[in-house]
């Protein structure tokens, strides 16, 4: 495969880090951007970048492009906000970018209740800035992160891409639905391909500290109670990071149907797991029972997620392979090594 130069936003984030690492392993050039905000522990973000060869002192220099050592000049990084209307267009103009993978966003359903402006800035203005840069720099394909949260509290499972998603129940979900509409408009008006991926509860090594896998593991190991919302009557389509990355790379690198420029896909495990069963799997690997604080449903949360991935399977041969037991074990091994 011919080497390409690919812009990956959110390169210090969970999924962005893995996508960048795999692209480099395949011989591509990566320009990573991230604002390294303090939504969660920045040390974890810098540690991910270090795995890509970007040293902390390099990454801390805002707007200065720095190259990694372990991948030569094939990995470059710049610290930047997506919504910066001068810096982002300047970056596009200064580099010969072939493809864009937009994984940067203000994440988290619950945090959107506390800090809505962060979601407007990053997820709305930032995404518009990305679309404008793609438009003006002849980018042929943009792959971007959407979310299973767009389905809201739908009872029609498994969730299909053709379902009505006009009723999001969190601001985070609303911004992701808006991203899909914005991408559709730009594909229609300016003729470049946009592929939205609706991620379903991604977990695994190097995962986010605000996610259930991390929170539960940390609490159980440290003898703290875990918060179990809706008294445990929740289910999630937990999807291992390795399966997610394989799907992202397929949509990004493989040729697709050129007659249809705007595309949307579910990307999940298609095997929903009850929350209490997930906790049990963690308890089993750690060898300790959780202290459970049973709580009511939290605002913005959904009761279930369940992905129909047949469309992604048909068009890109997507095949999730990692079951929850194996994924949980891999995460806990990483957690114990990382936190000693």
TrEMBL record:
Keywords: NAD. This is NAD-dependent epimerase. It holds the Pfam family Epimerase. Residues 6-268 form the NAD-dependent epimerase/dehydratase domain. Gene3D superfamilies: NAD(P)-binding Rossmann-like Domain (3.40.50.720), UDP-galactose 4-epimerase, domain 1 (3.90.25.10). SUPFAM superfamilies: NAD(P)-binding Rossmann-fold domains (SSF51735).
């Amino acid at each position: 495969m011919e080497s390409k130069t690919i812009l990956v936003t959110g390169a210090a984030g969970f999924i962005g880090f893995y996508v960048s690492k795999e692209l480099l392993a395949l011989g591509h050039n990566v320009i990573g951007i991230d604002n390294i905000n303090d939504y969660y522990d920045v040390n974890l973000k810098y540690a991910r970048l270090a795995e890509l060869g970007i040293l902390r002192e390099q990454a801390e220099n805002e707007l200065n492009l720095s190259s990694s050592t372990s991948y030569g000049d094939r990995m470059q990084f710049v610290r930047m906000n997506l919504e910066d209307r001068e810096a982002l267009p300047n970056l596009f103009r200064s580099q010969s970018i072939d493809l864009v993978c937009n994984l940067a966003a203000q994440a988290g359903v619950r945090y959107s209740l506390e800090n809505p402006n962060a979601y407007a800035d990053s997820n709305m203005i930032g995404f518009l800035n990305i679309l404008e840069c793609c438009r003006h720099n002849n980018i042929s394909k943009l792959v971007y992160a959407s979310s299973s949260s767009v389905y809201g509290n739908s009872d029609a499972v498994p969730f299909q891409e053709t379902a009505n998603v006009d009723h999001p129940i969190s601001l985070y979900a609303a911004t992701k639905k808006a991203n899909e509409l914005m991408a559709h408009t730009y594909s229609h008006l300016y003729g470049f391909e946009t592929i939205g991926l609706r991620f379903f509860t991604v977990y695994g090594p190097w995962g986010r500290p605000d996610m259930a896998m991390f929170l539960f593991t940390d609490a159980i190991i440290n003898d703290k109670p875990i918060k179990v919302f809706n008294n445990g009557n929740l289910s999630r389509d937990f999807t291992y990071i390795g399966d997610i990355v394989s799907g992202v790379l397929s949509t990004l690198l493989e040729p697709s149907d050129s007659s249809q420029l705007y595309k949307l896909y579910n990307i999940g495990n298609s095997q929903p797991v009850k929350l209490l069963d997930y906790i049990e799997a963690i308890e089993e690997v750690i060898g300790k029972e959780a202290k459970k604080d049973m709580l009511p449903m939290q605002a913005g949360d959904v009761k279930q997620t369940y992905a129909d991935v047949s469309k992604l399977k048909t068009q890109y041969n997507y095949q999730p392979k990692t079951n929850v037991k194996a994924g949980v074990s891999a995460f806990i091994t990483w957690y114990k090594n990382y936190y000693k």
